[in-house]
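Problem 12. The chain below contains 176 residues. Write out its predicted structure in token notation.
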Amino acid sequence: MKIEEEIELAKRYYQQKKFLLAGELFESIALRLEDNTDLVRSAEMKNNASVAYLMNGEPQKAFDMAKDTHLIFESVNDEKNCGLALGNQASALEHLGEKGLALQLYTKAVDFLNKSGDKESKAIILKRISALQIQQGNQLEALGSMTSALNNIDELSTSERILKKLTDFIFKLGNR
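Solution.
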């Protein structure tokens, strides 16, 4: 089977919620691509494996797969994938209980995603930052992060619209 076919199979496994199979196949593909010195595609597959392993409840394996892949993307000026790779590492660390380090990596991820113009991914990460800030007792910072996240979403859900109105109201009260 060709690598492209295997990638499609791994994606199907993921869509079918067969996360372990998807992770293992993405990891296998990543290693073969790395052997062929296709480091960028290998890093992409490692990040795909990372997400699959995290969904399978294996945060350490997820972190190990994504670790340092952002450096590959950064070396080729791929700001979007650099941000996503940092986000994947942060998410795994968050699940491992390393919330401080996760917050640092999420913050770096937002910088890269901001440069890339990927507002949707940036909003997702800003929501995670907000949740971690709440857990750390930094409610005002969390409110700012959530407001920023909501401002990066083009089409808000009903609950997001309500939350945005509330955050806007709180900021107006604070500025009186």
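Discussion. The chain has ten helices and no strands. Students who got a different answer should revisit the alignment rule from Section 12.3.
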